[in-house]
């Protein structure tokens, strides 16, 4: 994208939004292939998770999410798909002996539980700490 267009986008919010969209669309095809391959590799490692893991690479699985040996993972089930249905949250306990809980521990627990969405939100887009806690985490699900 040209510098002139970027300068104009800085002045106009609509152009700025268009710039963001164009940037997203201009992702290199090799980068997209790598993302698809990563997601496929994670699906092969965790075949019983009924969600596509779309935020973590194979290499990032061993990153420590919390220094604690146990965390509670929550799916709040507050999406619009659930309108008219009970919004009873799922709580999943994730344990590890020493060293803190990693993404791998979370994925292995979800795999063991055969966890999956009950609606159209089938992409696990992140795990977010609940403010002020290193024990409570929220699943970020998307479509």
What number of domains? 2
Structural class: alpha/beta
Q: What's the main sheet like?
A: 5 strands, mixed
Could you report the average pLDDT, rounded to the nearest whole number?
79
Strand proportion, as a percent range, falls in 15-25%
Helix fraction bin: 25-40%
Helices and strands, in N-to-C order?
HHHEEEEEHEE
* Unreliable segments of 5+ consecutive residues: none
DSSP helix count?
Answer: 4
Number of strands: 7
From the N-terminal CA to the C-terminal CA, the straight-line distance is: 28 Å
Radius of gyration: 18 Å
Strands ordered across the widest β-sheet: 1-6-7-3-4
What spatial form do the alpha-carbon principal axes imply?
Answer: globular
Could you describe the 3D structure shown?
The protein is α/β, with parallel strands linked by helices and 143 residues long. Strands 1-6-7-3-4 form a five-stranded mixed β-sheet. A two-stranded antiparallel sheet has the order 2-5. Helix 1 (3-11) crosses helix 2. It folds into two domains: 1-45, no CATH class; 49-142, no CATH class. The protein has helices spanning 3-11, 13-25, 29-45, 103-112; strands at residues 52-53, 64-66, 70-75, 90-95, 101-102, 123-129, 136-142. Helix content is 34%, strand content 23%. It is globular. Strand 6 and strand 7 form a beta hairpin. It has four helices and seven strands, in the order αααβββββαββ. The mean pLDDT is 79.
């Amino acid at each position: 994208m040209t510098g002139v267009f970027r300068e104009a986008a800085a002045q106009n919010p609509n152009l700025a939004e268009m710039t963001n969209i164009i940037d997203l669309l201009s992702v290199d095809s090799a980068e997209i292939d790598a993302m698809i391959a990563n997601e496929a590799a994670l699906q092969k490692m965790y075949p019983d998770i009924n969600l596509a893991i779309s935020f973590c690479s194979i290499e990032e699985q061993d990153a420590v999410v919390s220094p604690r040996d146990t965390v509670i993972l929550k799916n709040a089930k507050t999406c619009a798909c659930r309108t008219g249905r009970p919004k009873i949250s799922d709580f999943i306990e994730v344990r590890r002996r020493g060293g803190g809980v990693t993404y791998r521990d979370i994925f292995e627990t979800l795999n063991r539980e055969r966890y999956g969405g009950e609606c159209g939100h089938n992409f696990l887009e992140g795990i977010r700490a609940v403010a002020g806690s290193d024990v409570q985490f929220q699943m970020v699900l998307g479509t």
